[in-house]
Amino acid sequence: MAATVTPPRGMRDFLPAEKARREHALGVIRGVYSSHGFDEIETPVMEDASRLHAGLGGDNEKLAFAVMKRGITPDDLTAAATSGDALSLADLGLRYDLTVPLARFYATHRAALPPVFRSIQIAPVWRAERPQKGRYRQFVQCDIDIIGEAGPLAELELLTATVATLDALGLGGCTIRLNDRRVLQGILGSWGVAEELRERALITIDKLDKIGTGGVAAELRDLGIVDDGADVAAELEALTTADWHLYDGVVPPPTWLDRDAYADLLALRQTMPHAKIEFDPTLVRGMGYYTGTIFEIAHPDFGYSLGGGGRYDGMIGRFLGQDVPACGFSIGFERIVDLLAVRDEGRPRSVVLVYDPAVEPATLLKLKHELVASGTRVRFERRVKNARALFERVTADGFDAVANVTLETTDAASLAFRDLTA
Q1: The model's pTM
Q2: Using one digit for the tens of pLDDT, what is the confidence trace for 240-297?
Q3: Cβ contacts of residue 81 below 8 Å, gap of 6+?
Q4: String of DSSP letters for 209-254
Q5: Would you say 288 and 297 are in contact if contact means Cβ atoms under 8 Å apart?
Q6: Is 394 exposed, middle or buried (0-12, 13-18, 19+ CB in 10 A)?
Q7: Half-sphere exposure of 407 (CA within 13 A, CB side)
Q8: Cβ contacts of residue 273 below 8 Å, gap of 6+?
Q9: In which band, very low, low, confident or very high, does the pLDDT at 367 lie, cut at 50, 70 and 90?
Q10: Backbone phi, then psi, for 153, in 5-degree steps?
Q11: Tell me, what DSSP letter sits at residue 113?
């Protein structure tokens, strides 16, 4: 008995109908992003291992797939085993996100780019995740980024383009959750968390929606980051209910609230009066490179984020030696694509020509040429006994009509099409 043949764990094949749904969604996303003034770029699937492991990617660096150097010797293997440094055997790695490659791209090509560069990147990334529902080892990210704009216009453009994209995909009614890394630093400071432990503390707080306030407080205590888990749990519980009522110029602000950061977030909210925007001081975003504003998009019908991003002003300076302001947003493509149906508008008419075996290939190609020239998508299918099964299959593949091709068929005008959608 033959063994089952499947893709590697955490990776997937896509049948034609699934691929069509994905391409439809990607087309919508590209179109809206482009209309908002963003330009698409492409970067290699691999980057230097030193860049991928430069301390910018948070926990995702631990999930990077390494690519081994060529010509590794037994001595190299022994040295790596002795030192415990397996990465010494790798010089490249598969990208785990699109932001680190973008920073390298900008550092490489900045002389050819405008002072404020608005980029689109839509491409697969790879992480050595533990495969489970909704979590894959290969998945597509859809990023827009603005480099060179230090003011709030960058955040406003990103949020506006993202909301417009989700509306175009039929996922309107979203809520924008806002926070700022300066607010998080104030919270950690109020808990007495040492500076060198704060990034690790944020990794734990980022698990809040999975393990709850008690779980976060217990982990912070077990890691030696805080002394009293009970107090932290109580404060976290209060933070989860915080909103724009925290400080209005009359009500005294909490001691942990960074007033400048809060004022910046409030200004964003006031500039987008038609969007539903919430202040969430517990929002972290797991990547270690964020430096200021961070945001996520939530939908009332789904218990998970549809995407997120933030400001990462310090990253490009790691490559250039001088800081360049940057801000980006990534749509959670794999989370939304299965929610979408392929729309009929704009899709070409698709027909199947069922031909008798005796029909000459030249005749079939002549018919296809005529139909394709008129803007029709055409597929050939050999006549079979079970026509019903054939019709069900091609209908599932998105074809609209079927016609028989016999020895008497001379041109496309003589074809009698049967509607498969009725």
Answers
A1: 0.85
A2: 888 887 776 667 788 888 989 999 999 999 999 888 899 999 899 876 788 899 999 9
A3: none
A4: HHHHHHHHHHHHHHTTS-S-HHHHHHHHHHHTT--TTS-SSSSPPP
A5: no
A6: buried
A7: 2
A8: none
A9: very high
A10: -55, -35
A11: S
Distance set, CA 151 to CA 146, 154, 157, 290, 326 (Å): 11, 6, 11, 16, 10
The residue assigned the tokens 């179109």 is 31
Q: In terms of residues, how long is the chain?
A: 422
pLDDT in tens, 46-83: 999 988 887 766 667 888 899 999 999 999 999 999 99
* Cα separation, 352 vs 356, whole angstroms: 13
**Strand 293-298 relative to strand 175-180, pairing:** antiparallel
Q: Strand 350-355 to strand 401-405: parallel, antiparallel, or no bridges (unpaired)?
A: parallel
Place of tokens 């590794």: 72
Tokens of 209: 């929606």
Cite the DSSP H helix spans in 11-98. Answer: 16-35, 49-52, 74-83
Instruction: Say whether 405 sits in a helix, a strand or coil.
Output: strand
